[in-house]
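User: Could you walk me through two proteins back to back? I'd like the raw sequence and the structure tokens for each, with a short line separating them so I can tell where one ends and the next begins.

Assistant: Of course. Protein one, sequence then structure:
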Amino acid sequence: MKQISRIYTVLIFVLLYAPIAIMILFSFNAAESTTKFAGFSLDWYRQLFGDAEVWLAFKNTMVLALLSSVLATLIGTAAAIGLAKMKNRYLRSGVQTVTNIPMMNPDIVTGVSLLLLFAMVATIFGTGVDRLLGFWAILIAHITFNLPYVILSVAPKIAQLDRNLTEAALDLGCTPLSAFFKVELPGIMPGIISGFIMAFTLSIDDFVITYFLSGSEYSTLPVYIYGLTGKGTVTPDVYALSTLLCIGVLALLVCSNVMQRRMDAKQRKKTA
């Protein structure tokens, strides 16, 4: 059984990471072919850094992901704290169910429903739908579908908090606000960081919802790459771009894990 489980694990890792490894390999291809490796070269990276359209889409993606993840983290953390303090368990369960709907919904359903919402708003105010689509529409959508992930990351950390520490801080003269920042916030910070990283990566990755709400003048990397595949003009510079994104996300995850370990170690020292 151990041998079978090991073989199964290896197969899973191969299926997950072999395509990424092939993509990274072909980003260094000396030829334009995306099927035959003709030698090692950095030409596609040089071409990538000189492509203005790619960097505009990259900038749009990073600004959108950073802003939506920060706002979703702030709102989601506040929502998780509010849910934890709800005394009526039926009301709390109902709110949690409603909160999880954007996470359970298929992306295409969320995208179409948000498009219809903005179309209705445009009709009410007598303006064109294209004027409402773009950055702000996508930002609202990304915050919406990121919120459940932030709440799910923060809520377990809130449940693990020792309430006696908060009560001790209040007894020693802290106000409820200062007790939160000095006692509770450090305890739930690992969950907040996890929620932020999850929201950031989901925002970068999203295509379906962004495609419906991007309009004609705004483009992110997933939408831009999809446009290239539709024209049949995908070249290894897209592989180079995807490789840089993979490296960036990997670096972010490593930093997150290091920070969480340090914070957990500090928490153990405080409670010891």
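----
Protein two, same layout:
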Amino acid sequence: MRSGPAHMMQPRFWRLLLPAVFAVASGCVVQETRPLPQLQATQATASVPSLQLLDVGLHLFDPGIPPEVVENPEAGAKLRLFPEIRRAEARFLPSHLRGVLEGTGHWGAVRVVPASVNSFDVTVDGRILESTGTELRIAVTAVDATGRVWIENREYQGSADTRTYRQDQSSGRDPFENVHVAVAEDLLAARNRLTGTELADVRRVASLRFAADFAPVAYSQYLEQDSRSGRYRVLRMPAEDDPLLARITQIRERDYGMVDAVSEHYASFAEKIAPPYLDWRRYTYDEIVAEEKLKGQARSRIGLGAAAVLAAVLVPDSCSSDTCSRATSAARYGAAAGGVAAVVSGMRKREEAKIHTESIKEISSGFDAAAAPLVVEVEGRALRLTGTAEEQYAEWRRLLHELYREETGLVPSAAAAGPADAG
């Protein structure tokens, strides 16, 4: 047996190299996730008194599209953020949350409305932080009519329940149902912290704030707003036979009709896009998993290839005979060739990953076609509800103020009359 520094270096060299090789190789292992528990929203076990049955307005979510993506939609591909998808989700997600809340029996009317509608007992705003076929993350804020904050910019996050992606799954459960249930549970917890009197006050304040929007002078004596906190409280209620209140109550009923029409438009939209949206989520889930797996394989192959090349370069030349020298050279050449091939294979895997990313982008580009606008009839007027629903509702409110002025001869608040002048 030969001795010397070169010979002693060989076993030490491989002892140092092999752990690194196996460490690189282990990076491509994809861990399987266990099935997620399927949470259910708490159901009401008794009827809620009418004075405590709060109406909920769910504003269309903020799609959460960064300015750089708005200016350059192509930049969103790297973030797996596609503007046309996000805009559709901004309408779909609150519509699904509406169904969860309505199914509990804890609430009055639950409606999906534009951000300009603030006449509800409780108003919920949401912002999409992340949404793919694998993860959903949103931020939610909820405030009641008195100005009391129920939920403040709280984040809700969840992984997809992959059982909903199976072809034989027909339960209709959303892949991120648990996220919606978590929001519903927090809203219920916030409501349950209020007394019956406080809940009734929320409803009274909502009614008086709507009336004050049309007749601020007449109704300023019934409400007080704290200058520091911004909270409202009821000083006293108008007489039940107040003729002005009766007229405003009629106008509010008309407004409810428009709000119902707007909300049903979004419900119809959500129903229509549900099948293709689930397909998109399922597809992107498969694509993201495949892409991550390919990237892991690419890293592994490139790492192993580089290790093989390194091994070829560093193989000690400790032979004294021609036969040994030729064997060492062959080993060095084979390791280098194999290493280069592994690196090239890894590069190809990365290209395959890019192809998967492009396929996600391609299917997303035509998704917004499912969000065709609808035309609704309200009070004899045909309103085309599109992405500018805020403007459509503003037009409707201008009409309500015109009706109020014709019926009472009084001028509404300057704040409410402003949009009519702009139109």
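Residues 12-32, 414-423 have pLDDT under 50 and may be disordered.

Let me know if you want the two compared in more detail.
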